[in-house]
């Protein structure tokens, strides 16, 4: 298993144990040879940036560029916005690949998993490293499909900046909002790239407006498009007042020219650009005091005299402060606008030293990632992204530290600092990277190995896959003993099934896909129970009285309370056993065996005979709570999903008619260019196999996004149908 590793070093010093200067010459030579052996020259890859012959200096520069020249960035967006295509162009223009890969032909660098190439979607993030005009860029292409949200989050926490890619004909879409929120959470500075400017319906203004309205972000328009949709030819660089046009005869887009806008040849465009530049200067001055002083002091009379570099430096600062987002445009597919995007990445997104990471990590074996190829490297300076192998106990979301004691010491130090600052500062939080939020799985199904003898192999495969992807949950059904997979969606489970076959050589069988329901109770019930058992010569005797009731506010875990009559001394020895007993019984509700939610349990009395084991206390509490839950009025809760469907006007009616039959609740129908966007809620149970139905209904022209909204009570009729089906009555 490969682990994505971000090396953080206090004060950005090198890690001494991995320092290249500590290596003897022959070891460096060996590394060079190894480097050449592992370089993926097979497909279209150029040699690695900077590596010319057996040149030790260039090896050093590959591994250790100055930290100010490093950019660790991610590419994120709604599904199909064009992240992978953009990444492919970036790799080509930076000289990393020698030909252009195509998502639709299944030969891109970053979508290297077989499932990605077959389906034309990104599932797993891929990291690549390349150089651009003296900068080292470590780039991660992340998936856009909602089933793989966790994959995006695990990348965001190690990045210094991100490029948000938009389909210029659609603007902000459902998953854009999700990834944007994730980037907000991890405080990632961003730039926006309005892709697909060549597509019918593409609209620069519409996309910019949707950034303003839906993302509540302040767009800084660094470019204006020249033409739109079929007429899209290039763009204007607002800061330098230059026109960037691509030579129509240059197939690969390498050939483009930058021309100053002139009063004689482009009077209209020049006027528009001057207005846009002035507006940009005012906007940045509003957000950055240093720049405001400069503008008001020296250049208030004539903004034209303001040097481009001053404006660019100020834009860098506001991007870093995340008070605004630079916006660029282009068409990755038609090879337009990628080189300026690369310039903007190096110019506006921060270097690692501009971000606040303040702790040390140490590791033994390091690899530089090039999508599915890796090169072993002897050392790395802080601020880089690398891979390491062989860590047996790490899972996605872990932070690797040099030692527990140094982390604790750093945390204590930070706490003291925090206290000094009157407890206002949250320094302690800086010690650890924010954890990844693991979404709740909404689907599950049983999985069986081809024979009982293969069960250990299946367990091993699932254990490894879970370490990579904590949104995959695995449990054993206590009644049937079967292994159950719980995932984020149909596609997620399908991909896991496929990976078990391809990567672990195991042909497994999946049971029917089922919805992850929950249960709750509607009234208060009391129950008492006594457990009296003699094991050997020891008597175990417990008597408990509990009350179960619905909670007022939503709570996934059971709320546990103790009546005053239950003595504190008694609780000291038994509290853990009691709470274990309650939690275990709440994992399997009385109706469907689904987890209980919104339930509070009060322990009213507890009598324990001396010498009774904690296991017996747990067992008695479990049984008593179960009794109370069974007596209560019960309710099944089903996952309710947020649904967003984008469909052309012609197919709106059949889509709406179909949704009505699926218990869909339409909230809003928006108009987005030539498309209608249907926004609403629908129970997940009604959405099994929906992608096929939607494709048939709309001749493949519609797309949809589904995300868990909440759990809602099922109506009595649907609930009884479900219970009958589960008990085999219908
Ligand atoms: N017209 C047009 N189509 C594009 C452009 N960029 C990408 N596409 C097409 O859009 C589709 C999706 O492109 P991808 O690059 O796979 O998009 P993605 O965002 O990586 O997709 P996921 O990783 O699955 O979320 C493909 O059919 C591309 O050929 C563009 O600039 N213009």
UniProtKB/TrEMBL annotation:
GO terms for biological process: mitochondrial translation; ribosome disassembly. HAMAP family: mEF_G_2. SMART domains: EFG_C (SM00838), EFG_IV (SM00889). Its main location: mitochondrion. This is Ribosome-releasing factor 2, mitochondrial. PROSITE patterns: G_TR_1, G_TR_2. Pfam families: EFG_C (PF00679), EFG_III (PF14492), EFG_IV (PF03764), GTP_EFTU (PF00009). It comes from Prolemur simus.
């Amino acid at each position: 298993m490969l682990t994505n590793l971000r090396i953080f070093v206090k004060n950005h010093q090198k890690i001494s144990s991995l320092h290249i200067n500590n290596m003897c010459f022959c070891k460096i030579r060996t590394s060079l040879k190894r480097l050449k052996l592992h370089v993926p020259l097979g497909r279209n890859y150029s040699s690695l940036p900077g590596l010319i012959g057996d040149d030790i200096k260039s090896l050093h520069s590959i591994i250790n560029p100055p930290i100010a020249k490093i950019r660790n960035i991610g590419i994120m967006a709604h599904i199909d916005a064009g992240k992978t295509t953009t990444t492919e162009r970036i790799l080509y223009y930076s000289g990393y690949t020698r030909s252009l890969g195509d998502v639709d032909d299944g030969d891109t660098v970053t979508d290297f998993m077989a499932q990605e190439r077959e389906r034309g979607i990104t599932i797993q993030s891929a990291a690549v490293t390349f150089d651009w005009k003296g900068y080292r860029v470590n780039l991660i292409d992340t998936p856009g499909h909602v089933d793989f949200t966790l994959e995006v989050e695990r990348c965001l926490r190690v990045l210094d900046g991100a490029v948000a890619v938009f389909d210029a004909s659609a603007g902000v879409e459902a998953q854009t909002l999700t990834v944007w929120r994730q980037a907000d959470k991890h405080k990632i500075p961003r730039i926006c790239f309005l892709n697909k400017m060549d597509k019918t319906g593409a609209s620069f203004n519409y996309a910019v407006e949707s950034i303003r309205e839906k993302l509540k972000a302040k767009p800084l328009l660094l470019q204006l498009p020249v033409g739109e949709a079929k007429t899209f030819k290039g763009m204007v660089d607002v800061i330098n007042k230059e026109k960037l046009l691509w030579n129509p005869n240059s197939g690969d887009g390498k050939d483009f020219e930058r021309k100053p806008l002139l009063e004689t040849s482009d009077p209209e465009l020049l006027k528009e650009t001057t207005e846009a530049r002035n507006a940009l200067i005012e906007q940045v001055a509003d957000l950055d005091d240093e720049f405001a002083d400069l503008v008001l002091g020296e250049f208030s009379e004539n903004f034209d005299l303001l040097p481009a570099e001053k404006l660019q430096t100020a834009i860098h600062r506001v991007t870093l402060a995340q008070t605004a987002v630079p916006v660029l445009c282009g068409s990755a597919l038609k090879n337009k606008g990628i080189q300026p995007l690369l310039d903007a990445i190096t110019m506006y997104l921060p270097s690692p030293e501009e971000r606040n990471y303040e702790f040390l990590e140490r590791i033994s074996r390091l690899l530089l990632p090039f999508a599915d190829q890796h090169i072993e490297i002897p050392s790395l300076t802080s601020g880089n992204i690398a891979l390491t192998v062989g860590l047996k106990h790490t899972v996605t979301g872990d932070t690797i530290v040099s030692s527990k004691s140094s982390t604790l010491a750093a945390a204590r130090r930070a706490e003291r600092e925090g206290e000094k600052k009157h407890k206002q500062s949250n320094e302690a939080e800086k010690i650890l990277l924010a954890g990844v939020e693991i979404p709740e799985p909404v689907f599950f199904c049983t999985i069986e190995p081809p024979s009982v003898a293969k069960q250990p192999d299946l367990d091993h495969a699932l254990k490894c896959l879970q370490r990579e992807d904590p949104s995959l949950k695995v449990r054993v059904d206590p009644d049937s003993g079967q292994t159950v997979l719980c995932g984020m969606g149909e596609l997620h489970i399908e991909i896991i099934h496929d990976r078990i076959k391809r990567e672990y050589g195991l042909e497994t069988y999946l049971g029917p896909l089922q919805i992850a329901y929950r249960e709750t109770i509607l009234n208060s019930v009391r129950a008492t129970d006594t457990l009296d058992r003699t094991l050997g010569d020891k008597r175990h005797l417990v008597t408990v009285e509990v009350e179960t009731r619905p909670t007022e506010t939503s709570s996934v875990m059971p709320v546990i309370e103790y009546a005053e009559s239950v003595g504190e001394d008694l609780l000291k020895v038994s509290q853990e056993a009691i709470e274990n007993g309650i939690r275990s019984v709440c994992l399997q509700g009385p109706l469907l065996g689904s987890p209980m939610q919104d339930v509070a349990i009060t322990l009213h009395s507890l009598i324990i005979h001396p010498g009774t084991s904690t296991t017996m206390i747990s067992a008695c509490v479990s049984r008593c709570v179960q009794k109370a839950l069974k007596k209560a009025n019960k309710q099944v809760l089903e996952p309710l999903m947020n649904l967003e469907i984008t469909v052309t006007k012609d197919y709106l009616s059949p889509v709406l008619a179909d949704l009505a039959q699926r218990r869909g609740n339409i909230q809003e129908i928006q108009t987005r260019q030539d498309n209608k966007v249907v926004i609403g809620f629908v129970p997940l149970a009604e959405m099994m196999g929906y992608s096929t139905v939607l494709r048939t209904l709309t001749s493949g022209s519609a797309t949809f996004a589904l995300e868990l909204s909440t759990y809602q009570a099922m109506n009595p009729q649907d609930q009884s149908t479900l219970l009958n089906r589960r008990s085999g009555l219908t």
